[in-house]
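User: For my dataset I need records formatted as: sequence, then structure tokens, nothing else. Please produce one.
Assistant:
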Amino acid sequence: MRLVHALVLAVMVIAPAAAALSAAADADFAKLEGRWRRPDGGYVLEIRKVQGDGAMEAAYLNPRPINVSKARASRDGSTLRVFVELRAPNYPGSTYTLAYDPKRDQLYGVYYQALEGKSFDVVFERTK
């Protein structure tokens, strides 16, 4: 019986803490939502929704839509990160691996162009 009480107490303590952490993740990940544009070519990454677990609904335009096969947000310490994989003709697994800079309100990182096997440093600016 003591084990049952201990388990119930643990659930009562852990569940609210987990919910609070999830809510904090939701609030932080929400900072990533919006329309982001690369100033070096007009490519657009539209982050429509980010869930607390990092699942992301995103679109990529060049200028027409390119299939986004994977999109996730994550946290590395205090840094918010974005990973996007593109799968379409001329984009056979090209990826963006980005970090969010809250002071500049920018996403920065590396674009891997799978067709050429080359990586490029990139910056996305939030469009207003």
